Structure formats: structure tokens, C-alpha cells
């Protein structure tokens, strides 16, 4: 049975960027999600569309279908006093909120005397991703799971 919208998928994966592993759940808990609801990056879900239970596949997801292209404009200088009490160095990831109150992650990319330069791009923006995926299980989602937009028993 090929993967369709409104199904619960259970998978094991490893993600590589330029040959280096950047994320993996191999040997751990499977990733379980409801298809068609944007729970995983679009290119990965599209690449799994023809997979069946127990299939293994290498799925290459272009940056545009993953975390987007790197946006040089997505950087901002913030007054240093807003980071009082935080030990900062280049590459430090920080959690914050955007103007709408949504959680966001930024990365420190510059340390100046009076400002800190942060990058709002996802750390994997601009990178093609190579997924090695094993499809462990697929089942139709319940009406409640579809209405709630996610897995209830995972």
C-alpha cells in the first residue's frame, strides 16, 4: 500500500548534509506523523509517496523543498543588553518569539561591542538533504486524528 494523505506513517530515518549525519532516529523511537498536514518537510513526504511497509529508500530533498534557500536578508542586529546574563559565542542557538508570539530559533553569527548579530534562517536552510528512510508502518488515520491534525497514540 503506497503512502497516501491522511495516513499515519511510522519511519526510521537518517539525514545527511554533504555526507555528514545531521539527524537520525536509527535505533531509537520511530518518527510517527499524519501525512498531508505539513508535519514533515514537503520533499520528504513527496519522496515517500510510493513507499510500502518495510521499504528502504534514499530520498534527496532539494533545499527549496526542505528548509528553503538561505536568505541573506534574514539577519538582524540586536542590542547586546537584550542578552544580559547569557553566555554567547558564535554559533550559539537561541530560542525566542516573533511578533505573533510564535516560537523561533535564531543562531548567533556576529558579536559586536554593542550589538549581537542573529540569523533567522533554519540551520539547514540552503542545503540539500539526503534521507535514508525505512518505512516501518502505515495505517489510515482515525477521524479524530484527522480532525486534530496529528497522531493521538504516538
Task: Report on this structure.
The chain is mainly beta and 154 residues long. It is built from two helices and nine strands; from the N terminus they run E-E-E-H-E-E-E-E-E-E-H. It has two domains: 85 residues, Chitinase A, domain 3 (Roll); 45 residues, Beta Barrel (Thrombin, subunit H). The model has no long low-confidence stretch (mean pLDDT 93).
Q: What is the level 1 CATH name of the largest domain?
A: Alpha Beta
Residue runs with pLDDT of under 50 for 5 or more positions: none
The number of helical segments is: 2
Q: From the 3D structure, determine the CATH topology of the largest domain.
A: Chitinase A, domain 3
Structural class: mainly beta
Distance between the termini: 21 Å
Question: How much strand?
Answer: 35-45%
Assigned CATH architecture of the largest domain: Roll
Mean pLDDT: 93
Number of domains: 2
Major β-sheet, in short? 5 strands, antiparallel
Please state the overall shape, judged from the principal axes of the Cα atoms: elongated
H/E element order: EEEHEEEEEEH
**Count of distinct strands:** 9
The residue fraction in helices comes out at under 10%
Write down the Rg. Answer: 19 Å
Offer a concise description of the structure.
By secondary structure, the protein is mainly beta.
List the topology elements.
Elements (H helix, E strand, L loop, with lengths): L6 E11 L2 E5 L6 E4 L7 H6 L8 E6 L13 E5 L13 E5 L5 E9 L3 E5 L9 E12 L2 H6 L6
Antiparallel strand pairs: 1-2, 1-3, 1-9, 4-9, 5-8, 6-7, 7-8
Quick tags:
2 helices, 2 domains, Chitinase A, domain 3, mainly beta, 8% helix, 154 residues, five-stranded antiparallel β-sheet, 40% strand, 9 strands, Thrombin, subunit H, four-stranded antiparallel β-sheet
Amino acid at each position: 500500500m503506497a503512502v497516501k494523505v491522511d495516513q499515519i506513517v511510522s519511519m526510521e530515518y537518517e539525514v545527511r548534509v554533504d555526507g555528514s549525519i545531521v539527524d537520525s532516529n536509527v535505533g531509537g523511537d520511530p518518527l510517527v506523523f499524519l501525512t498531508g498536514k505539513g508535519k514533515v518537510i514537503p520533499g520528504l513526504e513527496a519522496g515517500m509517496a510510493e513507499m510500502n511497509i518495510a521499504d528502504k529508500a534514499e530520498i534527496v530533498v532539494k533545499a527549496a523543498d526542505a528548509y528553503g534557500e538561505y536568505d541573506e536578508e534574514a539577519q538582524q542586529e540586536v542590542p547586546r543588553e537584550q542578552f544580559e546574563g547569557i553566555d554567547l559565542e558564535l554559533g550559539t542557538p537561541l530560542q525566542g518569539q516573533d511578533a505573533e508570539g510564535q516560537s523561533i530559533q535564531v543562531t548567533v553569527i556576529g558579536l559586536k561591542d554593542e550589538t549581537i548579530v542573529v540569523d533567522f534562517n533554519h540551520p539547514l536552510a540552503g542545503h540539500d538533504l539526503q534521507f535514508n528512510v525505512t518505512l516501518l508502518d502505515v495505517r489510515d488515520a482515525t477521524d479524530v486524528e484527522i480532525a486534530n491534525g496529528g497522531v493521538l497514540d504516538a
